[in-house]
Amino acid sequence: MTKSNKTTAVIVVTFNRKNQLVTTIEKLLQQSNRDFDLFIIDNCSTDGTYEYLESNILLDKVFYFNTGENIGGAGGFNFGIKTVLDHSNEYKYVWLMDDDTYAEQDAHRELINAADRLNNNFGFLSSVVLWKNGKYCEMNRQRLVRKWYKKMEYLDEGLILTDRATFVSFFTSIKSIYEVGLPISDFFIWGDDIEYSNRISKKNYSFVVGKSKVVHYTETNVGSDISKDDKSKLWKYKYAYRNEVYIAKNNGIRGRLYQFAKIGYHILRVLGTRCDNKIKRISIILGCSIKGLFFNPRVEVPKEGD
């Protein structure tokens, strides 16, 4: 374990997106608050990511780790947090993001300011996520809690209560990690951030930080939809429905009823949409939802001082 005089460990998980990754790194290196170390977790990319970072003279500015195999976004963030905890016990926060997340110049500063304003008494903080045209990114909208007015004293400072956010720009404390554990690596992709943000927000109030902004540089600004997606992307939904049912099981009767209704609605959308492979799409919805009923992955909780 090494010493670090930095407050935050930034963790970027990447897979075969070297061009976007370089821009992500450059945006981070331009932050007005540079009180962080930057960890690149490479999910065994096959597009020459390491060599590309080397040619852009970026390897000496980051801590680079290759997972050895593609363990998905969920596994990558799990691996990344473990790596940070092994690297130094002096970090106070971790800031998670995807490899196509471009942080605006004051994004980290505003997260730190919010943490200070809250006296570090929070579960997680989430930046406002915009798309490349400046509008809100649909797939990264946080869910505001129904009783958001419980913390109205922070509204003037751009802080509003949430209990669900994505890993596109997700800021939490090392203390919270020791309290609730790590993201579930067995999720592989999709839903790991929703489950993790739910888990953390059940322990402590969590907030959207209106003054912290990032741009999610995705191809389109639409959410996932099994009735519209190309058949080449259908494999991802196998994880989505399995993981969503697992999350619903842990969110009481309301969560279960909502997921049941959602499954029915998605089947109706497939039937009512002019898409190919209807039987395959419906079988994924039903089959993987059933798998979710029996899916009970292990939640890893690191021990402080290990």
TrEMBL record:
Name of a matching Pfam family: Glycos_transf_2
UniProt keyword Cell division present: no
The entry's keywords: Glycosyltransferase, Transferase
Entries under InterPro entries matching the protein: Glyco_trans_2-like, Nucleotide-diphossugar_trans
GO MF: glycosyltransferase activity
Ranges of residues in domain Glycosyltransferase 2-like: 10-121
Functional pathway: Cell wall biogenesis; cell wall polysaccharide biosynthesis
Residues spanning the signal sequence: none
Entry's family note: Belongs to the glycosyltransferase 2 family.
Protein name: Multidrug MFS transporter
Native source organism of the sequence: Erysipelothrix larvae
